[in-house]
Amino acid sequence: MTFEEIQSRATAEWEDLCGKTCILVGAATCGRSAGALAVLDAINEELTKRNIDAMVTQVGCIGLCYIEPIIDIAKPGQPHVFYASVTPELVPQIIEDYLIKGDPRPDLALGTVGNEGVKGIPKLFDLAMLRPQVRIVLRNCGFIDPININHYIANGGYGGLVKALKMTPEDVIEEVRKSGLRGRGGAGFPTGVKWGFCRKAPGKEKYLVCNADEGDPGAFMDRSVLEGDPHAVLEGMLIGAYAIGATKGYIYCRAEYPLALERLYTALGQMREYELLGDNILGADFSFEIEIKEGAGAFVCGEETALMASIEGRRGMPRSRPPFPAQSGIWAKPTNINNVETWADVSVILQRGAGWFASYGTEKSKGTKTISLAGKVKHTGLIEVSLGTPLHQVIYDIGGGIAGDKCLKAVQTGGPSGGFIPPELLQTPVDYESLTQLGSIMGSGGMVVADEDNCIVDIARFFLTFTQQESCGKCAPCRVGTRQMLDILERISRGEGEEGDVDKLQRLAETVRDGSLCALGGTAPNPVLTSIRYFRNEYEAHIKGKKCPAAVCKGLVKAPCSHICPAGVDLPRFLRFIRRGKFDEALAVLKEKLPFAETLGYVCPAFCEGKCRRGMLDEVVATRVLHRLVAERGNGLWKTRVKIAPVTGKRVAIIGSGPAGLTAAYYLTKQGHTVTVLEALPEPGGMMRYGIPEYRLPREVLAGEIEEIKSFGVDIRTNAKVSSLDDLFAQGYDAIFLAIGAHQGVKLGIRGEDSAGVMEGVSWLKEINMGDKVRVGGKVAVIGGGNTAIDVSRTALRLGAKEAMVIYRRTKAEMPAGIEEIEEAIHEGVKIEFLTAPAKVERKNAKLELTCIRMELGTVDASGRRRPVPIEGSEFSSSFDTVIVAIGQMPEAPEQFGLALKRGNRFQADPYTLATDRKGVFAGGDAVTGAATIVEAIAAGRQAAISIDKYLGGDGVVDEILSAPDEEVALSEIDEEKHRLTVPTLPLDERLHSFAEVELEISEEAAIGEARRCLLCDLEESI
Amino acid sequence: MNTITLTIDGEKVEVKKGATVLEAAKEAEIYIPTLCYHPGLPPFGACRLCIVEIEKMRGFPSSCTTPAANDMVVHTNTPRIQELRHGILELILSEHPYFCAICERRERCESFSPGIQKTGVVAGCHTCPGNGKCELEEVIEHVGLKEMSLTYYPRELPILKDSPFIDRDYNLCILCGRCVRVCHESIGVSALAFTYRGPKALVGTAFGCSLQDSGCQFCGACVDACPTGSLIERAARWEGVPGQLILTTCPYCGIGCQLNLEVKDGNVATSVPSEDGVNHGLACVKGRFAIRESTYHPSRLKSPLIKRDGRLETATWDEAVNLIASKLPNYQGEQFALICSSPCTNEDYYIAQKFARVVMNSNNIDHQSSRLSHSPSVIGLSQSFGSPGMTNSINEIGNAACILLIGSNVSCDNPIIRAEIMRAVDKGAKLIAVNPLRIDLCRFAHSWLQLLPGSDVALLMGMMRVIVDENLADWPFIEERCENFDAFKESLKEFTPDFVEKVTGLAWQQVVETARTYAKQKPAVILYGTGITQHTHGTNNVLALCDLAMLTGNLGKPSSGVYPLEGENNAHGACDMGAIADLYPDYQPVYIEASKAKFERAWACALNSNSGLTFSEIFNAVAEHQIKALYLIGNPIFNQPLPDKLRHWLEELEILIVQDSFPSEISQLAHVVLPAASFAEKDGTFTSAERKVQRVRKASKTIGNSRPDWQIICQVAEKMGAKGFHFDHPSQIMEEIATVMPDYSGITYERLEGSGLQWPCPGNDHRGTPILYSDKFANGKGRFTALKYKPSAELPDENYPLILTTECSLYHLYTKVLTSKVRGLEVLSPKETVEMNPLDAAKLGINDGDVVKVISRRGELTSRAKVTEVVASGVVSMNLHLAESLINSAVDSTSKIPEFKVCAVKIEKT
User: Fold this and answer.
1) Which of residues 514-553 of A touch B (CB under 8 A)?
2) Is A893 in a helix, a strand, or coil?
3) Which of A276, B182, B442, B883 lies at a CB distance of 3.0 to 4.6 Å from B448, suitable for a disulfide?
4) Minimum-distance CB partner of A475 among B48, B150, B198
5) What is the complex's ipTM, to 2 decimals?
6) Mutation test of the interface with chain A: which of B91, B98, B147, B192, choosing the one with the most A Cβ atoms within 10 A?
7) CA B117 – CA B111 distance, rounded (Å)
8) Could you count the other beta carbons within 10 Å of the beta carbon of residue A651?
9) Which chain A residue is nearest to residue B69, measuring alpha carbons?
């Protein structure tokens, strides 16, 4: 049979299909693991049952792994309709509705393919994930039957070979060279040039290898191609063999890919049948054989010299180059190695021309690249994009952004040997040079997205665990170096990191990188080197702060809730006491770490809830409300257990009586020091007193807790503004703690900001909280998205405003204010304009005309959130009586203190000891961090007490156990799904005319029930 | 342009093309630290210490793997390189007990260090057997490592002492892979390998089995390659740095390996192969590990003994010599015989035969091992080519394109030859193994012909028939350089395909293909061993091989020729020196008047013109009381219980003199026992299988009162009043040898310094002859021999249905005199088994491991059956030294070699 005859037969078979109802089931490994085979069975069963004549075929992966299993139904003359996340239960419905009743069920359908559309169903390739993609390698995946060579041929298959055989080998090489195709295995060496070397190498016997030893964790590009379109790879090899003059080819495929291997064996059989292998292929003077070698699971065998050794039957250990494989490869004969994807590109290049291929990509990186997109993106799967596509587009457009609307932390490209790329570099195009420049690599195309819940140290440790285990052991830098590095990383993640570890790690990593024999060792340190480069502070948090900011590292984190709590409250123990109704003991647990337990019961942002593992099951445990309850129910048992050290005779001045100042005062007093708190305002409490509206924090609660602190002997002097530190030292104070908070509003920086009627949020609240009579107009605009903005808007309504509108430049997901606060505000009638930013304010006719501009989300900034970008021409104006700016605060740090300041007028202090550059002077809280939360300020106050105590000669141990001994309770009810308790709130009509507290009390039973939802993560190790 | 010029550290260096940067640096005497580099092995690039910076090259290439190129600019010691090397060395050391190596009190510790060498664990250099020889210490010194910042990961592995000779302490291993590579690439055994990966990666055996079970040949190359104390020879474990190295020649097989004896306080601590000899730094288990133990074995004879009242009693030398000198004159002429055995030096043999011929006027002098292994070669090669030596040199084998290995299991007989063969095979040479047994090298062979024992002539003639018929012969060579071709060609007719198939048991097609391969792949060598010679038609076998080489013109050219592989040490020397019955030194027949006259002149005496008796004839003559005085040098009898018959014969001798290093059953029968010094205690020369005369040098102090053989004989001769036996040093004997042996006439001890000389070396300015017959054959033309197939003397029949063939052991030489003294060799030598094919075993109902009785017409013995496909159906095989009582004593009519390789047996299950 001539090839033309084969072609026409194949085309006829393909066209035949169009006259038939076809159901294609994505049944590659990814589909199968999602249950595609069960769906397939259900389809066959249903068709038999209903006696429907339809052709059911297994096809490869279309790339939308996150919604597998996917089926595609094509009725004769109709477009293909795709259904995602199909279950066997759904099958009868779809078949009944579409095949029998003719209703394609737009509600279930994912998209259509075909010239005609179906009403109500989008075109598949218009889906956000698919639209930016360019499918060259994956051209057939998911559309043809991979075990039917005729399908491949009918879709142009082996056309590239036919064309190549009419050209001289040199011309074929030239065509590939012109296309700009570079090795997709990772190194990116120009394929045509490589072929040329091998062609020119002397010798009759030459070998060709397809490297299908895809060993990167999280990479599945090659597998998908082999499973979905094996002939694309094999045809590429034939063309390469012809061009190079090779007579024997090997496919080195890992044995862990059973389906890919099965497809390859089938495909080779079909090729033999069509005489596409063997002597005189297609009648040309060209003979070629292909043999499959199954790899035994060593990652290093993906390295070409190790791979060749493995093919020869030797231990897969790399050797130095030169000689390069093109000179001396398998059995010392010239050998050309390319990976699966490179081979899959070749046929199309021949068919459609080098120019066409080169029209995709960038100057130096032509064509497309398949990427397996994994990690914390919404749409995980296999994608193919034009080289040069910005990472940002890959993650946000194709990947759909970060799952759970969390903050992006880093993108890791190139498999376990790749590096981390921080959010601020996300505009980087995906191409060989750009990624290398950032310290990462293209690798074979793995891309893993990490969010705020991922610990960088932990990921680096994970990858290094892999690479060190997969080191072949030949050279010491790789074998021992990776182990030494892992050792340090493990120590750091256990909380046993030492000062200097990061530098040591860096030195080791450089030795391994520069000293290793092969690329495995040469690139294995990349995750470590880039994470140090971009996330050094995260290492330091582990080493100096003994904190894992993502609350991941096992050794450091017993329970993520208490780990993430700035004050370090032992929440599981706290909840265990509540379970048994021992509220007084539970309060004691709180009081071990914070003197403002009840205050926080009202206003804590509850970082603990953000990390609660119960959330993975149903909903997080409502710890804050329980704080409040125990504080109310407690009888002060804890006070009887507090120990106070003998008087030391040392005197400490604390400037500021906010949460930081008073907490420091409390603990320093307990350590025996004599403490004086100096407060500029008339009443103590700082922002707790002057920043937070009363409906959120009743005054008597705060006053009560301040009284408690005073009762331990803290001397608080109000209306006592300090203007000189020298004076204080002169007065005999031994140490000073600056906790002046951040009371100065940040300006917007727009035109008209100084107009009358434009106010600044925190001062406005302060005035109200000082009892001043503040008037507010009927229509109020609040600019900002934090708690202050929400407090201002809700206060405005209570003061009689008819309308309060919050203007925020990003979306609700990014809003810094607590979600409950936002919901309550909306509930109370506050309007929020998202994606809007003020542009100017004008005073017009006693009104303020506020011009705003609409925003859209652009690239990610260093915080891992997407940056808002103005939409040109979207300006609009509204008029308001009052405009209140609440976009942040900064400290009013007096210059005469003579201390070093950093950006935002903040004091410069060591983040871990809080020591300033002046001896004996410490600073903490908002004055150092900028406006933050009360619990963070409390943590700072506690740390200041520790540091100052040490400075004054103490041991710095402020910890004490105030509760009764913890009884580890038997676990119960943890499996059962149970929703979080709902807190009753004040009815709306009672709220708006008063400052009465909104949240109402919960019952003790409810509290105990809620506490029983705790999974007791801290006991994980002991179980 | 065959040279390359590059710049290293600012210095211009010129090297040969193909040299690596490291080699270039060595040339320029620029030190680059290395650990995995080994001059005998291909570069590996694993230790990474030899990294350099090369301008216009990325990264830090390893200099050992990077080929030098013109105009390359190399920096070996930039600050970054120093830093990196420091870092890498620290990493290597983090798995190695390094503490002493970087201790600043090291020097002081050395002088006060107590005897802590018996500690079980190596904690640092001071408790390490490698101390002083360790390359790591050198590198640390050079890199200047003073402190370690890394965590130490002790492996805490037990020291492996599960095999003889070698201790393995992998706690010290730095994974340089030298042991693995030398085992794989130089030896071709691959007993050692890398195991596991990642941090568990190490070297070891497959599945962690013992070295015996791994296929290890105990050549010790791994021990010699190891740069640390990880692999250590157990016996020499605590010997430390040797005081002196004495270069000498191995006393075991005939290959002539050069060994360095490490001497400390006058004792040989161990023997390490020299890089310079034919062995290129390799040795076999015997040369590497057996010398120390056999030299200092407590049973060594330390004093002369004289039998008084039926008991051997200690005597003085004077007493013993006087006794002999008083007795021997009574037996001059045919009543006297002298048999020498390996290992004697050329000087010993020369003096021995001179003593027999001059003092005792007898030609009854023979040499055990050459008579029993290669006497057919002496005759066959001489008849065809005019001279009895190996035609080419051993190191040429590695460059051959085809190797016909016939009748030899070199893996046991001559392990160094195996390494040569592997070298050729690695380069693509076709190895044709012809052997009734599936020998070890069959694994690497292009083809294996499992012919029936004793059918070699049929096979070879069949092959030659194909070569002639297919016109593959080298006609010009035959025309110009050979004679008697027509008669030979005529004799091929008998060897029809049917006939050959029937006799050899091979398919004709296989014969055809083998013939084609041998004839087409040039140059081709023929290597043969006792499987060819130990037949009643042994000489014919040799002649057939000579015909084959001539037919294809594979003579007189490098890497071609015919290689008789001698099993025992200095058998060549024994023949050269005339320690054989019918030949004077230099193969001059005693029955030719001219040669007799020559030697009568040289030795100033009248000589006996009768051909002497050969080895077995001597014993027959003893039995018939024709010989009444027997002088044995060494032990010529298999180290088995003496057969009663033989014991009886020996007891009836009127005087039996045994001159040996060890007591034996025979020495128990002697009237006088003379303690002979071992090779390590004396000076002299050995002549190796490749005709190379090499020095033996005194390394050890003498054991007891023993004396070198030549000295003892000279004493006896002088006592008997003979002239011409006064020598102060063996070099003087060599001076006399040079005067009577034309082929040795250019050889003096002085000229032997260096690498020795290959005879013919006819003159003081002659540089020896590595390849014979480059221009012409010794007698002018090579002579084809027309041959007929002659069946073995005893073929299987109904009563004795199986063919017994014999093989040799790697761990013993024929009579086991030297090897049986070494415990480790005894441990390693295979249990006494008889190998039989599963088909035969099944027929007899025998299972693997069953105790069986092997019976021949001459005797029987019990053994265990090893059921294996190593042997073909109808053939059984045993080690020669075990099967002695069974084998046929029929001899080849010309060479008088007994037919050790074929006899008929039956096997019974007990």
Assistant:
1) 514-517, 522
2) coil
3) B442
4) B48
5) 0.87
6) B91
7) 14
8) 18
9) A322
User: How far is residue B770's CA from residue A546's CA, in Å, rounded to a whole number?
Assistant: 77
Task: Compute the distance between CA of residue B423 and CA of residue B403 in angstroms, rounded to an integer.
Answer: 11
Partner A, chain B 157-196, Cβ-Cβ below 8 Å: 174-175, 177, 193-194, 196
Taking phi first (over 0 means left), then psi (-120 to 50 degrees means alpha), and beta for anything else, what does residue B471 get?
A: left
Beta strands in A465-570 (DSSP E): none
Phi/psi at A536 (5° precision): -55, -35
A-B contacts (CB, under 8 Å): 106
Which residue numbers in chain A have pLDDT < 50? none
Residue that has been written with the tokens 């609240």 in this structure: A765
- To the nearest 10 degrees (0 to 180), the angle between helices A230-244 and A258-273 is 60
Which is it for strands B311-314 and B336-340: parallel, antiparallel or unpaired?
A: unpaired
* Token digits of residue A359: 């029209």
What pLDDT score was predicted for residue B822? 85
Distance from chain centroid for Cα B319: 38
d(CA B101, CA B142): 12
Q: What is the DSSP letter of A390?
A: B
User: For chain A, how many helices (H) and strands (E)?
Assistant: 41, 32
A851 neighbors A838 (Cβ within 8 angstroms)? yes
DSSP B894: T
Closest CA to B892 of B495, B651, B538: B538
- Closest alpha carbon to A26 in A78, A95, A72: A72
Sign of CA dihedral B61, B65, B68, B74: positive
| DSSP string computed for B185-219 | IISS----EEES-GGG-EEE-GGG--TGGGT----
Q: Quick check: B547 and B464 in contact, CB under 8 A?
A: yes
Q: Give average pLDDT by consecutive 10-residue segment, chain B, 910 residues.
A: 90 93 94 93 93 93 94 95 95 92 80 60 84 90 90 92 91 94 89 92 92 91 93 86 91 92 92 92 91 92 94 94 94 93 90 94 88 88 91 94 94 89 91 94 93 93 96 94 94 94 94 96 94 91 95 94 89 91 90 91 90 89 93 78 82 94 90 94 94 95 94 95 93 94 93 90 91 90 93 90 87 73 83 89 92 90 91 90 80 86 90
* Closest CA relative to residue A389, chosen from A416, A414, A367: A367
Q: In this predicted structure, what is the pLDDT of residue A1022?
A: 64
What is the secondary structure of A909-962 as a DSSP string? --TTT-B-SSTTEEE-THHHHSS--HHHHHHHHHHHHHHHHHHTTS--------
B81 touches chain A (CB under 8 A): no
Sign of CA dihedral B752, B756, B762, B768: negative
Sign, Cα dihedral of B633, B639, B642, B646: negative
CA distances to A94, B129, B195, B228, B270 from B232, in Å: 75, 7, 20, 9, 11
Strands of the sheet containing B692-696, edge to edge, are B684-687, B692-696, B757-758
Interatomic CA distance for residues A293 and A310, integer angstroms: 9
Cα separation values, A141 from A87, A382, A383, A597, Å: 22, 11, 11, 59
Say if residues B269 and B673 touch (Cβ distance below 8 Å): no
Q: Kindly state the tokens that stand for B581.
A: 């019955």
Contact (CB, 8 A) for A551 and A563: yes
Alpha helices (runs of H) in B36-158, residue ranges in sequence order: 79-93, 106-112, 135-143
- All residues of chain A having their beta carbon less than 8 Å from the beta carbon of residue B202 are 473
pLDDT of residue A926: 93
Q: Beta-carbon neighbour count of residue B311 at 10 Å?
A: 9
Per the CB < 8 A criterion, the answer to whether B460 and B548 are in contact is: yes
CA A781 to chain centre: 34
